[in-house]
Design a protein that fits this description.
The structure is a single chain. The chain is mainly alpha-helical and 478 residues long. 60% of the residues lie in helices and 0% in strands. Helix 1 runs antiparallel to helix 4 (92-109) and helix 4 (92-109) runs parallel beside helix 6. It is globular and about 75 Å long. The two termini are 42 Å apart.
């Protein structure tokens, strides 16, 4: 069944039926047919997450720079390419994941109007259970402090989308537009208040050009720069130059950091992936999937519409921040009037949401088109296999980063920090392919599927399938 398991993958282990490139894109076929292109797009999103968290693969060969970002201070064409890749995946990978969540929700829900109320309720319960499990896994992974975890945010998106599963395309699209326009403004306004996480950022919120000049002057202090560089070198070498205390890694940070875990307000407003913003991606994915993804024409429209939205979002932001900036209020680039006009990674503005949504649409449409041909489908199978077990691989890479950068492997930490992304990508492609071909659903996706199905069966009874009153009853009947 083409259902969102874990990070939005099918967990039933069924083989994908051959796609029908010429099928009408009604989006109303049964929920048991997988779309290999959706898995491939999810695999692309996971690769983007790996790059965002660990650096660009093979960048050290192109730049000669072993820095953990993959390009660091190196120069030349290799460094420029590595930096471009880092910029491209930054923020957009998370948005693509959220967009695919909406697609998966509609694939799970099936047609606009499922046959019975029992079917609808069981789908709702399964999604709610899956969301709660994602929240639990996300919080557990977040305590490691090795990366900015999205899983528990993702679970919140699922819960918010459950009541909207069977809305029509135009209603979902209208909601997506409304959230994209209003949600970022609510988020920016809330984050400027001296409450929650924003309370510690009041000084930063008042940053001016004078503060920027003072910061640049600090970097002109050779002694301060030498101390910073020495600290960074110690960290990159596994922290061997730093004192190690019991229960802490070489870097001096606690192995488990519960204080870094987000609270409810962080999930909704203050966090890196706030629901007030990212729900727009989910709704957009639901609208696109409801409009149809199975026909070739629908897929081309998805690619074209996505490219148009990307140009609209990023292009408008560039115009307002560049050629048209002199017409805007405010004395410098730090004016609060300018912040909602940004479109850089995780700026969580309307322009970024529109641009990221366009990129997500284009990626999904392109993956569906490619997987509509047998050669490309075979070539992309390892990536699609990764996309079919994103919960497993996402969690595993978070644990690995905790072990490597937390100083648990001091003997080879330097090598691991330099080549972590290459090792993780290669292992993920091979592991996912072999596992998918032999065992089906991923090791974490399978129990999530089983638990959600079991709870749905226990809590939602089909009374129409029950035996007639009195038949086989035990004890007296009224």
């Amino acid at each position: 069944m083409a259902v969102a398991e874990g990070l939005g993958t099918a967990g039933d282990g069924r083989r994908e039926p051959p796609p029908d490139p010429g099928a009408a894109g009604t989006g109303r076929r049964g929920p048991r047919e997988r779309l290999a292109g959706v898995d491939a797009a999810r695999g692309v999103a996971l690769l983007g997450v790996f790059i965002a968290h660990m650096g660009v693969p093979l960048a050290v060969l192109a730049t000669g720079d072993p820095g953990p970002t993959g390009w660091g201070g190196a120069t030349g064409h290799g460094a420029a390419l590595a930096e471009l890749v880092s910029v491209v995946v930054g923020g957009r990978s998370a948005a693509l994941f959220a967009f695919l969540a909406g697609v998966s929700l509609v694939l799970l829900a099936g047609s606009d109007r499922p046959g019975t109320r029992v079917e609808r309720n069981r789908v709702r319960v399964r999604l709610a259970v899956r969301a709660l499990l994602l929240i639990a896994v996300g919080y557990a992974l977040a305590t490691l402090g090795s990366l900015a975890v999205i899983l528990h945010f993702y679970g919140v998106y699922f819960l918010l989308a459950v009541p909207l599963l069977w809305l029509r395309t135009r209603h979902l699209a209208a909601l997506a537009v409304a959230v994209a326009l209003i949600g970022p403004q609510v988020t920016l306004a809330a984050q400027s208040l001296p409450v929650g996480p924003a309370a510690g950022s009041v000084e930063e919120a008042g940053w001016t050009s004078a503060d920027d000049a003072a910061w640049e002057a600090t970097w002109g202090d050779p002694e301060w720069v030498r101390e910073k560089e020495a600290s960074w070198e110690a960290e990159e070498s596994g922290g061997s130059a730093l004192p190690v205390t019991a229960g802490e890694p070489a870097g001096g940070e606690a192995l488990f950091s519960p204080e870094t875990v987000e609270g409810p307000l962080d999930l909704l407003v203050f966090g890196l992936y706030p629901a007030t913003v990212f729900t727009a991606y989910v709704l957009a994915g639901m609208a696109v999937a409801r409009a149809g993804l199975r026909g070739r024409r629908a897929r081309w429209w998805t690619v074209g519409g996505g490219l148009g939205l990307a140009v609209l979002g990023y292009g408008t932001s560039w115009l307002l921040r560049g050629p048209l900036v002199r017409f805007l209020p405010g004395e410098d680039e730090f004016s609060p009037w300018r912040e909602p006009l940004e479109a850089y990674a995780h700026s969580n503005t309307s322009f970024e949401v529109v641009g990221n949504t366009g990129v997500a649409m284009a990626v999904v449409g392109l993956c569906l088109l490619l997987c509509g041909t047998r050669p490309a489908r075979v070539l992309l199978y390892p990536v699609a296999a990764m996309g079919a077990m994103t919960l497993t691989l996402y969690t595993a890479h978070g644990v690995l980063l905790w072990a490597v950068y937390g100083g648990l492997l001091p003997g080879w930490a330097s090598w691991a920090q330099t080549y972590t992304v290459e090792a993780v990508v290669a292992f993920s492609l091979v592991f996912a392919t072999v596992w998918r071909l032999t065992l089906g659903a991923g090791p974490m996706e399978r129990p999530v599927t089983a638990a959600s199905k079991a709870v749905a069966r226990w809590t939602v009874r089909d009374r129409a399938a029950a035996p007639p009153e009195g038949a086989g009853a035990v004890g007296p009947t009224a």
